[in-house]
Amino acid sequence: MRSSTRVLVIGGGPAGSTAATLIAHQGFEVTLLESATFPRYHIGESILPSALPVLDVLGVRQKVEEYGFVRKGGAYFEWGPENWELNFDHLQGSDSYSYQVVRSEFDKLLLDHARTQGVDVHEGVSVRELVFDGERPVAARWARTKDRDESGTVSFDFLVDCSGRAGVMATKYLKSRRYHEVFKNIATWSYWRGVKPLDKGPEGAIAVCSIPDGWFWAIPLHDGTYSIGLVSKAKAFAAKREELGGLQGVYDDGIARCPRIKDMLENAEQVAEMKAEQDYSYVSETFAGPGYVMAGDAACFLDPLLSTGVHLATFSGMLAGASVGSILREEFTEKEALSFYSQAYRQAYERLLILVSFFYRSFSRESQFFEADKLTRRERHMLNLYESFLYVVSGVEDLEDAKDSALDAVAARLQDSGQLFAGENEAMAAMPTSEQNAVGGVYLTFEPQLGLRRRSAAEELVS
Fold first, then answer.
1. Residue numbers of the chain with a pLDDT score lower than 50
2. From residue 400, how far is each of 116, 293, 318 by CA, in Å?
3. From CA 343, how far away is CA 1, in angstroms rounded?
4. Collapsed DSSP state (helix, strand, coil) of residue 312
5. pTM (predicted TM-score)
């Protein structure tokens, strides 16, 4: 273990491995500490098309393609009285698919790749305490997870907190995490063999099927199993659990009330114990500060409904890589770069937050599409409501927005965050991505390397 490093990354999930790899690509010394030893179990198996361009930037796409994960062509929804499919073939460009992955294997693949790119990865090492110089974290006290007698301290110039739900900075030091009361849900799930394949929707699709007090996911995996999960309203779940005597009873009762899932599981065998999560919908009041950024679940997590977890993790990891690199090269002040990072990541999160909130508030497909159209703000006259919804749900909107040469806007920031969070005001303003749409004169670039760029003097005069 080094006693000092230029950049310390806490956490080896998709956010951590993405950020660490991209910072190492820029020639900086990166140390990554992960408390678990991979492979380790993690939920969140359905991946969005937005992951593919990030995998390209990481240089790991071919490894993922060749691994054998189920190719995901889209999604099939049975939501209230409506049913419809989203086909990723309708997306523009070549990234018109994604994957259903076993997260333990997918995450290990990304972390192992980070090692090959020069990241100093240490598994089974927990960060016990951060040391601060004023508000700035400057060192981490660590210990081996299985041998607490082996410990030490590593100092750093910059911290990327990708510690997931544990959220080292947000929960232990900043006390900045707040939970969304609107998404007071509980997820319960297990794994099955012998599941009847979905006969609707695109090949390899996730099925999302509602019941009066919740909804199910059904995800095909390459090991021959299906991930079948139930998301319930907390109050309804508590009542059902008391009535039926436990997680399994609530789960079985939900299956009995969901015709599509019940049919798929008719001759199937449950091959794993029940798992459950609650209090998983949250956001930190700040995503960055002096000497640090928080990426992935360490900053926020929304809801499993639209499979946004890995999208937000890899997207924020990419933003972190660009922002930190530009800071360390002294191309931007820390204040400028962290402002860019915070606005871009928060807007990506909040746009999806609104879409999910309207999903839960309405069983009308038309109103869901209408809200998606408001949230994307894409300045294309021919873009219809279906396409708008598809771009938000697939995660492509945020990723393409971040490419200087790809689309017209990176992201948007809220004009009134309180009203927007309540779903009362969808007004958004453009955020930096290209010279034409730069905010504060800054936008994201991939050439000649990942980083931030200032708007040209000529463009400043025009504006």
1. 377-383, 403-433, 458, 460-463
2. 27, 22, 12
3. 34
4. helix
5. 0.86
